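Lab notebook page, bench 4
Experiment: in silico fold of construct C2
Operator: M.H.
Input chain length: 338 residues
Purpose: comparison with the prior construct
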Amino acid sequence: MDIINNPTFAPTKDVYNEIDPLLDFNWRTIEPLQIRPFKPRYHLTMALQNTTMSELVAVDKTYVDRINLRRQLIKDRPNDVLAANPSIVPAVNEFHAWMFGTYLPSRYSSMFKLIPASYPGTSAQLLNCITSETIPISAEDAVLSLRLLGEHIDTDFLFLLPSESPTDQGKYKLEGFITCFPSGFDTPKKLNLKLAEIHAPVPGYGAKIEKSMDRFFATLPTGKIVLRTNWSITTNTNLFSLGGNHLYEGEEAVEEMVNIDETVLRCERQTLHRLPKSQALVFAFRTYQYPIRAVKEEGSGEALADAIDGLSSGSVPGMAVYKRGVVWGRAVKAFLRT
């Protein structure tokens, strides 16, 4: 069944243009979302929830600091944070036009203002009221579009298309990205890879969720957007991390001295949706960091310590190694439980 083009699965309303506005939104007073997705036992599942297109991008009082960091990374390490294959250019251009022409001025009208074309031959622009910069609403250069997305939105975006190989029918490949805050993975090395290849290091992925992931990506209809969250512990506060947050097969697991003041609970709020014209999939994630001291002080210390124990007692015991729990676990649990 062609789910994507079947009218039965068409959105009941124009979810891409009917964005719920946040009236009188003051980003300076908005606290970051507090995500606590850990559970007593870790089970590898898709764990998807339905959400709305209006909830795609979250903004809070960290906006300026994090945008400045993103801009520095884009300037200093462009080859590490963005790339676009020719095949993904239409999708990136489509997303650029929608994000800057519809989503941001509709959702966050106090931060982003549309500037109509002033006379024939000119184009409409978007004013970022926080940075006092204008952004073209249409662009044909995908690399420029990705850079602008990274410079104005504190969310990372990855663009996927179906593989053109007859033997990989229905399987999706990464064709472009802007990822300023990767958590221990080198995004450029993931370019051109299928989902299973991207997730090859993840324990249990092939046995537990590979088929369901491929099926879900292939059949996600336009107008539907899904949400999931994850969590990890890192013994550094680096938002940009191409490596070091995971332990791979063959690497030695040595317990380390942990500096609690540099240790954070790192969570990602991830979404997936399909673009209506190009039919490309957009995987987006916003990264949050919470000092371990703050997690303990709020009263969640015991629950997080139990979840760390639960990494090795859930459906994929190897997750305790993959997430480096065998390296930092004893020290972090001792702190959380004292």
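Observations: The chain has a mean pLDDT of 93. The radius of gyration is 21 Å.
Next step: discuss at group meeting.
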